[in-house]
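Protein modeling request. Please complete all fields; requests missing the sequence field cannot be processed.
Requester role: graduate student
Desired output: 3D structure, token encoding
Chains: 1
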Amino acid sequence: MARWKGCCTKKGKTSLIYFFENFVMINERMEQAAERKIIFHKFIEWYFFEHPQRIIRGWKNLLKFNLEYFSIPLLLKTLFSPWKRYRWSYGRGFDLRRYLEAFVSNAISRGLGAILRIFLIIIGIGVEFLLLIGGIIGLILWFIWPIVLVAGMALGIWLTAC
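Delivered output (162 residues):
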């Protein structure tokens, strides 16, 4: 017992008290390290699994909003409807001049409606495509950002050291 007394005592404390103090200190350090690992694990889980799902859900809502904003399904259903419901009546009886005038005017109104609706559909699909590409780029940047951050810090340390 005499040979253990010298290596387990410090500043006059007995070996048993010193042992328990070290055990408590080591236990606290282990708990802190475990807590750090849990926090790091939770961060990785949040950053790479939970938040990308939120990004994709928000991106999907933005794409749906764009379809509704440009009314693409409705514009496709009413593609050849008269523009702003402008229609000319054929009138009573048969008057060739009035009949041709109403027919041509209605055809022009429907043609104008189709041209403008096609133009709006093209713009809506173009914006939808830009939102799709922007969302893909944003998601890729979300995953690349930690690498860029660490590389930037390493580059800064390297430039400072030189």
